[in-house]
Design a protein that fits this description.
There is one protein chain. This protein has two domains: 225 residues, Spore Coat Polysaccharide Biosynthesis Protein SpsA, Chain A, CATH 3.90.550.10; 65 residues. By secondary structure, the protein is α/β, with parallel strands linked by helices. Strand 1, helix 1 and strand 2 form a beta-alpha-beta unit. 47% of the residues lie in helices and 12% in strands. It has a seven-stranded mixed β-sheet, sandwiched between helices. It has ten helices and seven strands. Helix 5 runs parallel beside helix 8 and helix 9 packs antiparallel against helix 10.
């Protein structure tokens, strides 16, 4: 199978038939084999009935139906599990992502050797209230991830199969897949300017609340990727610095009390700052110690992505 196209959807009954015909028209022209995996994220309209009908007409149309709405990340993650194509392409179901981009995305992965190709909706057909937060979000993500992409949230992306089989996404982390791939060791990442069509049917399913969720997920992702296997390096350092600062304050106040004959230590506000720093430092240090113990007892503590192995003896002694 050349291409797996994963399409997460929620209440998109009007566009599914048109999108399917468009995709197969493009890939047939390029003489590529293709499967379409629709992931119905708990739709309440007739989307699933249409997917079943499409499957009866063409066995390369496959479908997954969630019992309720879990979100785009869950839909993509499940689609990645089933994808069999050498190149995996994700796109939205609302016809704003053009299937005409599929051949170029496929060639960038297959011929040019990229691990991930992220679409860039350079000219967007979205309202200003959606574009401005998106620009700020993309700027922040670039600064934190050091990944020079213009549009992290574009639904149109392409991946090597090995990439999607070795990453896991949840929450609102679908927009960070290039970042997750980079931190997993897949460094050949690029972007391609893609056409962005105006929405033809229905209305957007996303509100402003996704921005806050996205930033919280970015913070979580950054921490887990850097300190997930060594939490003591983060919490232990902060806890030690806090405790040391509190200890210095206490030592200074004790010196002032007995050698400079100043007022009682408890009469000075600085005493309570020092005490608070030592208490907080101890708590943070203990939190890091417990996190380290949990990490070391995890069944995944020594799981690493291996690209190649040379000279390994298959017989264990």
């Amino acid at each position: 199978m050349d291409i797996s196209i994963i399409v997460p959807l929620y209440n998109e009954e009007e566009s599914l038939g048109e999108l399917t015909d468009w995709i197969f028209r493009v890939v047939d022209k390029e003489k590529l084999s293709c499967e379409i995996i629709f992931v119905d994220d708990g739709s309440t309209d007739k989307s699933w009935n249409i997917i079943e009908d499409l499957n009866r007409k063409n066995s390369n149309v496959k479908g997954i139906k969630f019992r309720r709405n879990y979100g785009k990340s869950a839909a993509l993650n499940r689609g990645f599990d089933l994808a069999q194509g050498e190149v995996v392409i994700t796109m939205d179901a609302d016809l704003q992502d053009s299937p005409e981009e599929i051949p170029d995305l496929y060639k960038l992965i297959k011929n040019d050797g990229f691990d991930v190709v992220s679409g860039w909706k350079k000219k967007r057909h979205d309202p200003l209230g959606k574009r401005l937060p998106s620009k700020f979000f993309n700027w922040t993500t670039r600064r934190i991830s050091k990944l020079k992409l213009h549009d992290f949230n574009c639904g149109l992306k392409a991946y090597k199969n090995v990439v999607v089989k070795n990453i896991e996404i949840y929450g609102e982390m679908h927009r960070y897949i290039p970042v997750i791939a980079k931190w997993a060791g897949f460094a050949k990442i690029t972007e391609k300017v893609v056409n962005h069509n105006a929405r033809k049917y229905g209305k957007s399913k996303y509100g402003l609340e996704r921005i806050m969720k996205g930033y919280l997920d970015l913070i979580s992702l950054t921490f887990v990727s850097k300190f997930g296997k060594r939490p003591m390096h983060f919490f232990g350092l902060i806890g030690t610095l806090l405790f040391f600062a509190g200890f210095i304050i206490a030592a200074y106040l004790a010196y002032a009390k007995y050698f400079m004959l100043e007022f009682k230590m408890t009469d000075r506000p600085l005493f309570y700052f020092g005490l608070l720093a030592m208490v907080m430092g101890t708590q943070v240090f203990v939190a890091g110690f417990l996190a380290e113990m949990i990490s070391r007892n995890s069944t995944h503590r020594n799981e690493y992505l291996i690209e190649k192995v040379l000279g390994e003896n298959s017989e264990k002694k």
